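Continuing from the previous page of notes. For each protein in this section, the sequence appears first, followed by its C-alpha cells. Read the first protein now.
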Amino acid sequence: MAGEFGAVLRRLREKAGLTQDELERRSGVSVSTIRGLETGKRSNPRMTTVQQLADALALRSGDREELLRAAVPGRRGGGTGEAEADAPEAGTAQAEAAQAGAAQAGTAQAGATAVASPAVPPPAPAVRAAPAEAAEQLAKAVAARWQREEEQRRIQDPYPLPVRWKAASESLTDHWANIRRLPPGVPSGPLDLSGRLEGVAETYRSIPSGRLVVLGRSGSGKTVLTLRFVLDHLRSRTLAEPVPVIFSIGAWDPTAVTLRDWLTEQLTRDHPGTAAPGPGKVSLASALVDSGRVLPVLDGFDEMADGLRRPALEALNATTLPLVLTSRPAEYAAAVAETDVLTSAAPIELTDLTLDDLDHYLPRTTRKADRSDPAAGAWQPVLKKLREPSPDGSPAPLATVLSTPLMVALARTVYSDTPEHDPAELLDTERFPGVRELEEHLLDNFLPTVYRRSRPGARGWDPERVQRWLGHLARHLTELRTPDLAWWRLGHGLRGSTRTLVTALVTALVIGLVDGALSTAFGGSLAGGVLDGTVVGLLAGLLFGLVHWFTYTVTGKDVQPSAVRLRIRGRPRSTKWRAGSRLVIGTLGGAFFGSAYGFMVGLLRALSRHAGPASALETGLIDAILFGLIFGGAAGLSFCLLGLLETPLDIVSAVSPGSVLRADRRTVLIQLVFWAPVFGTAVGLGAGVAVDLLQGHLGQLVMDPMSSLMLGTISGLGGALGYTLTLTAWGQWCLLARVWLPLTGRLPWAVAAFLDDAYQRGVLRQAGAVYQFRHARLQSRLARRRR
C-alpha cells in the first residue's frame, strides 16, 4: 500500500503545481520524507504526516479522502465492499455526505436511498491531526481487542447462532421523519429494519439518524450482537465515520456525571493512551468524544438501577450523538413510559431461536454417540422429542428455555462437551416441571462443569470454594450496582471504615518495621529501635490512614490505576510538565504530613524527658514548623521531578485487566525506586539547610550529620511505602485483594491467576480493563446463592 500512497501523493502534488521543496515549506514535512513516501522507500506514513500534507496541498474532500484511504492498508472507501478500483468515487460520496451534515442527508432522496449514517464534519486544520490520528489508532485497538474476545467466547465454534430481529413496537419508536432526518413536509414511512447477525452493520447504516436501540429478553444475544456490530462496522468503516466503542452503560450514574464526561472517563480507563494531552488543553479522550469521532455502543441499559433509567434516557435525549443502545424490552418500555422514546432512534427487537436453528446447531457441538451411525449424537433424540406435540398444544418447557442463545450456550457446555452428562434428562418433567427449574439447573451446573475440566498449565480449583469466591464477587458487583469487575475496586466489598482501618494498620506495621530496623542499625540499640519504630509506625499509620480517608473514603472516589508510564531516559516531547500544580500539591501534602509528624514526635520527645506541658507544647510547635518546611520542600521537589518521567501510554497497547495491573505495578515500583532516594536525599539535605536557616529564630536547633542521614533514609523508605500502600491502585490491590480478602476467606490467595482462569473457562469476559460475568443472569444467580 506504500507504493499506492506514493503514487497518489505524487499525482496530487503535481496537480497542485508544487515541487517537493515547495511542499516541504508549506507542510513542515522534510523533503527527504516526501521523497521517500513518493518512491515507496518509506512505508506506513504517520496519520499526522498525511494530514499535514493534505492541508498543505489544500485538497478538496474527494482528493483528501483518496489520500487518507491510500495511507491505511486494507481501507475501503465505502461500507459495501466494492472493488478497490471503485473506492475513490465511493470515498468522495462519503466525504461529501459527511460535509453536508445530518440535515441535508435527510432529504427525500437521501431518505429513499439510506446509504449511510451521517458522519461528523472534519474539524479545522489546526486541530485535525491529533484527534484524527488518535481515532485511527483507537480503531485498530478496538478491532484487535474484540476480535480476540470473539475467539475467546467461541462465537464462531462451529458457527454463530442465528440471531435475528424485527422492527420493535411503534410505541417505542420515534417519528419516522425524525429517524430519517427529513425536513418538514416531506412524506415519510418506516424503514425495513429486519435482519440477521451478519447484517447488523448494514442495518445501522440504513438509519440516517445513526441511532439504534436493540431490544431483547435476557440471554437473547444482545451482547454478541454489539460485538459483531463493532467488528463489522470497523471492517467497512470510512475515515469520515466515528469509531464504535462498547461501553457498559449499567455503570453510569446520570445524576452524578454527564454523558460526555462519563464516556471520556470510560475511554481513558479502557484505553489509557487517550489520557495524553490533546488539542485545547484537554485529553485525547475528551477531544475524541467532543468531536464525534467515537460512536458509543451502550450495552446493558436494563442493568442500570431502577431510579437511574429515566434520567439516563433524558440525558441521552439531550444530545444528538449517534449511538447504539441495548436493553431488555420491559425496562426500556418502563423508562419510555416515564419520559419519552429515545429521540430519532429506530428500535429493533431480537427474536427467539427456532427448533430448526437448534437442529442445525446443537448436533454439531456434541460427540458422536453411535459409531455405526456417524450422524447420530446425544442431542438428536432430545430434539426429536421436542417436535412432538404436547397434549395441551403448548411448547415443551425445554423448547422455551432453548429459545435464547444464552441457554443454548449453557446447555452446550453442560451436555455437549461432557461425556458423563446426557441431555435427555432435561426432558424429565417431574424433575424439571417448568422453565424456571430448567434455567436454574443450567445456571447451577455451569460452574461445576467448567471447573471439573483440567486446563493445560492451569492449577486445579476446588469447585465448592470457586462457588464461594465467585459468589462474593457477584455480590460485590450487585452492591456496587455495576457490571464491571475492576481489580482496583475489589477492596470496595468492605465497608469504607474497615478498608481505611486495614490500610492504616498495615501501613503502620510496614513503616514501623522499616523504621525499627533502620533505627537499630544506625543507633545500635535494639530497645531504642523498637521504641522509635513503634512511635513512628503508629504516627505514620495514623497520618496515612487519615490521608486515605479524606482522599478516597469520604469523597467516594476510587484509587485509579496510573494512566502513564515512567521513562527514565529523556523527557518525551508529548508530555507537558505541569510543574506549578505538582509543586503546590506536593508541597502542601508534605508540609501537612511533616507538621503533624514533627508536632507529635516533638511532643512525645519532650514528655519522655518529663518536661512540663508548656515546654512540651513549645517543642512540638518548633518541630512542627521545622519538619513542615523540610517535608514540604522535599515532597514538592520530588513530585516535580517525578512528573518529568511521566509519559502517556500508547493507544494501541493491548489493554486487559492483567495488562493494566502489570503496567500499574511497573509504574508504582519505578516510582518507589525513584521516590525513596530522591525524597530521602531531599529530606536529609533539607534538614541541614533548614536548621542553619532557622537557627536562633526557633531557639537552639541541633541536627548532626548522622541524624540527617537517618532521617533521610527512614523518610525516603517510609514515605515511599506509605504512599504506595495508601494512595496507589497497586498498593491497595496488594493490601486488600492479596492479603486481607484471602485472609478472611472471601477470595483465593492467587487472585489474579484465579480471575484469568475464570476468563479462560468462559465464566468471566473481558471488557477492556475490567472483567464482567459472562451474563447478568449468572451474576444474579451467584449473588443470590451467596446471600
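Done with the first. The second protein uses the same format. Note its length before scrolling.
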Amino acid sequence: MNIALITARGGSKGLPGKNIHMLAGKPLLAWSIDAAKESGLFKEVYVSTDCPDIAVVAEKFGAKIIERPPEFATDNASSHVVIDHAIKELALKGSDKVMLLQPTSPLRTVVDIKQSFEIFEKNEKCSCVISVYEPDNTPAKAYKILESGEITGLVSSEAPYTRRQDLPRCFQPNGAIYLFSVDGFSQSQCIPKFGVFPYVMEEERSLDVDTLADMQKIEAYLQQK
C-alpha cells in the first residue's frame, strides 16, 4: 500500500497562514494534494496538522486528516516524529510505502511523483528516493573551516581549483519528495540515510515557500508557463 503524507502545521513565522495562502487560484496546500491524487498511486492522501483551518481546506480538496498533537507541531519538532506519529496512527505495515510531500513545494508534479516511484522500484538497493536539483554553483567547490581557522576544500583540497566538469556531480535536496518504506523508516526512526537514490528536478522548479516573496516568485513562474 502506498500513502501520501503531507505535513502542514499551523505556525509559520515567515508567512502567517502559509499553508492555506492562495497561490494562483487555490491554497498552497492544495497543489500537493491535487498532484498526489491525480497520480493515482496512493490508497489515501493524508494531511498531518494541528490547525483546524488547514484541516478544513485539506478535506475540501479530498485529503484525510491526521490530528497532530501540539508537542509535534512546535518549531523544534522534527519531521521524523511527525512521520512516526502518522505511521502509528495509520497502523502501517513494514512493506507499505510513504511519500512525504511538503506543501511548500508546489511545483512538484504528477510526473515527478510517478518517476520517483519508478526509481524506487527498479533499484534493488534503494531504501529511499529524495528529490534534488543540481545547482549552477556546485557545492563541490565549497570550503570548510578547520579547527585551526584555516579553510580547505569540502570535497578535497584541490576541488575549489578544479574545473566543474572534472568534479563529481553534486546535488541539493529541494524538499519536494521523500519516498521510503515503513521498514526503512522504522530501522532508524528517521528517513533512511543509506540506499538513497536521487530524483533530479530542475532548479527553477525547486523553489520552496517560506515568505511572501517566495510565493510571488512561484506565482510568476506559473504565469510564465
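What the second structure shows: The first strand starts at residue 2 and ends at 7. The chain has six helices and eleven strands. We return to this in next week's lecture.
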